[in-house]
Specification:
By secondary structure, the chain is mainly beta. It has one helix at residues 17-24, and strands at 2-4, 25-26, 35-40, 45-50, 57-58, 74-80, 85-89, 92-96, 101-104, 112-115, 124-130, 138-140, 146-150, 159-165, 176-182, 188-189, 194-195, 199-206, 214-220, 223-229, 233-237, 242-247, 252-259, 268-269. It is built from one helix and 24 strands. β19 (214-220) and β20 (223-229) form a beta hairpin. The model has no long low-confidence stretch (mean pLDDT 95).
């Protein structure tokens, strides 16, 4: 398991592009036949990509977690970004089609991941945060998620937000998770931006075509920087940072949060007039 240490608000302004990417960007995910995991010191989040091909892959507790099982003190949301797949947990089997989400709570057995067709594998994206209480496992199909339609053509930000693990969706201890799909011709997300000191956030950008990119804006509202992202790369957004993006075309992203509360609208606005 890789370890990603937190970067402070005081050291951030003097960082080079290379240092920013090293501190806040995860790349090289979704390797066929592998589980890749990163432990982020901020809020003790774990980010994993799981791509089963020929054999099943089992998510066990790495030594860094100092636990008997991965879910001994944790919960997780798992979104399938690939083809049809299957997750087996404690003798229960869950079938996940593309864009379906599975929640596993504290105390779950180590899950096993497989693809229905190894030649067209599933791509499981997992986000985990510590949990002090347990909630039952729950599978939510994309069609069952709460949908919020936002934006306008004039603002180039027509998008649909799918809320899976949420105060009005799948219940959890502290994890909140969903995805946003931008309509064709729209490029902006989360603008005007915001911060929320009560929780960190993780963005996975996907559905970015070859040759395209997303410019992710981060940092204090009066001290912004940008990261240029390609397909299936992750940005770790600390509580003091804005998190907004603009693409060269339409794209999608998975958002996940953990921290002090689960209110989706718990945001500290950063008006455009304040951005620098």
């Amino acid at each position: 398991m890789n370890i990603q240490y937190s970067t402070g608000i005081r050291e951030y302004p003097g960082m080079t592009t290379r240092e920013l990417r090293s501190s806040f960007l995860l790349e090289g995910l979704f390797s066929p036949g592998k589980i890749d995991s990163t432990y982020w010191e901020t809020d003790r989040a774990v980010v994993s990509s799981i791509v089963p091909t020929g054999t099943d892959l089992v998510l066990a507790a790495e030594p860094e977690l100092a636990a008997h099982t991965f879910f001994e003190r944790r919960e997780a949301g798992i979104l399938n970004l690939g083809e049809a797949g299957r997750i087996s947990v404690g003798g229960v089997v869950y079938d996940l089609d593309p864009m379906d989400c599975l929640y596993l709570g504290k105390g779950s057995a180590n899950p096993s991941f497989s693809s229905k067709d190894p030649a067209r594998p599933a791509k499981f994206y997992l986000i985990s945060y510590p949990a002090h209480c347990g909630f039952p496992a729950a599978l939510m199909k994309q069609s069952e998620a709460i949908q919020v339609h936002l934006g306008s053509q004039e603002g180039a930000n027509v998008r649909t937000i799918y809320q899976y693990i949420h105060e009005k969706g799948i219940p959890s201890c502290q994890l909140v998770m969903g995805m946003t799909l931008l309509a064709s011709g729209s490029v902006w997300n989360t603008m005007p931006p915001h911060t929320h000191l009560r929780r960190s956030e993780v963005y996975l950008y996907f559905n970015i075509p070859d040759g395209a990119a997303v410019f992710h804006f981060m940092g204090k509202p009066d001290e912004t920087r940008n990261l240029i992202l390609k397909n299936e790369q992750v940005v770790l957004s600390p509580p003091w940072s804005i998190h907004s993006g603009c693409g060269t075309g339409a794209y999608a992203f998975v958002w996940a949060m953990g921290g002090e509360n689960q209110r989706f609208d718990d945001m500290d606005p950063a008006p455009l007039a304040a951005l620098k």
